[in-house]
């Protein structure tokens, strides 16, 4: 990886973190539990890395097996996280 | 890099951001969560476009297995157990990051035999470190929350020096990996140290501090996703990871502030032990009991009621009878509200979910800062399963371990009724002097049963 692409990634990291702080500070305390389980689902974005790792050649390589393990775990995180958040938010009524 | 794929990643990042933005309003939150999940789907589709067709079979098998497990948990879990589930899923996210990092390391160091770029190698090491700590730390938090290991802090002599030694060894092993990338022994050491550090850093933290710990681990799982983004040179992972990282940090701060503790103080742990040491044999508290009939009359005679719910309410599954109590009071034009302390429950906002489950409208749930001035004008405060968050010792007794913690000013009300199983102590293990106050009455017994009796008494009045 070149230094240039690293700098771009750091830019994205810094700006996204700032945006995250701004947005999340405004979430009302009532929603903090769904916020946490929902952001938990978002952290399952590692699924992208897991899918790419599954693309490696041959079943005999550790790379492939690690990719498949990561894929199962990240999918649990994503699917379970969004589903339970939806289940909770459905109960919030006025 | 294919432009379509990159644009899809950008689109999915935007959906994550809008999804979180929509969480700012309770009525939009559900749509926001849906939008965020669409963002995830788009990121997955964009990634699948880069995958060889030949790998698709096993990918779909893994996705189906993961989805089934995820859905099973999501629909089976009780609302009281949400903190455990979040801890468990945080752990899975951390372990997934470790697995992706090892996969990439193995590919580059053992298969293609290419020299690993230093930036990638550092990202891999960081991913193993953060992901490993997130995984085992979350597992310990999970086991503590569901009571399979003790909630009290586990400390031993030399704990902090040991952590320091581990950290230094980690740095040394990192340097060794950098000098000798193809030697997998060093990588194994890195993985093992990270896993051990996760356990060692969470075991000394007491059960009462678990809301802080899960918030912090939530933040770590986001950071782990970020490091994966650096390994793969992928922006969507960094944006999503940063959002989660920020969310976890903000919630951690809120929790620390609500307990008047610094994060360092929480992480060093041993909270319960300092209390055991300081416990003095003060004058024991003399309490006044109240029966269900009298309690019913007090409700009937009040014009305003504030309920202070705590985790004990959820354990007793009393939230539904409290809704019945609310309905009875509202029929009699008695104002009925709930006062929610930020650390009530086992994770941030937990009490709100538990009350929402009992069909209690969210506009009746009032935050601490908003409701604290109202207690002095309130006829009746009903405390159910809450303890430390209403203990006036936090304001009056500098010796108390919870001194300085912001509390709900329940003691200012005209009359207080406390529903409690017995005279046990709160989660922090502290005696509550409120129970001895002249305006405080104890309603002993299982919350669900006694409140149900109170409700039927009120109906007869």
Helix content of chain A: over 70%
Low-confidence stretches of chain A: none
- Tally the helices of chain B: 18
**Coarse shape of chain A:** flat
Assembly type of the shown chains? heterodimer
> What is the overall number of helices of chain A?
4
Helices and strands of chain B: which structural class? alpha/beta
Structure description:
The complex is a heterodimer of chains A (94) and B (461). Chain A has 94 residues and is mainly α. Chain A has a domain at 29-91. Chain A contains four helices and no strands. Chain A has helices at residues 3-24, 32-43, 46-54, 62-91. In chain A, α2 (32-43) packs antiparallel against α4 (62-91) and α3 (46-54) runs antiparallel to α4. The longest helix of chain A has 30 residues, at 62-91. Chain A is flat, with a radius of gyration of 17 Å. The model of chain A has no long low-confidence stretch (mean pLDDT 93). Chain B is of the alpha/beta class. Chain B folds into three domains: 1-76; 78-273, no CATH class; 288-460, TPP-binding domain (Rossmann fold, 3-Layer(aba) Sandwich). In chain B, 61% of the residues lie in helices and 7% in strands. Chain B contains 18 helices and seven strands. Chain B has helices at 3-22, 29-48, 56-76, 82-111, 118-145, 159-179, 184-202, 210-232, 235-259, 263-268, 271-278, 292-301, 311-315, 319-331, 350-357, 368-371, 393-396, 447-460, and strands at 288-289, 304-309, 335-340, 365-367, 380-384, 415-420, 440-444. A seven-stranded parallel beta sheet of chain B has the order 1-7-6-5-2-3-4. In chain B, β5, α17 and β6 (415-420) form a beta-alpha-beta unit. In chain B, α4 packs antiparallel against α5 (118-145) and α6 packs antiparallel against α7. Chain B is elongated, with a radius of gyration of 26 Å. Chain B starts with a helix and ends with a helix. Residues 272-281 of chain B have low confidence and may be disordered. The interface between A and B is large, with 80 and 113 residues.
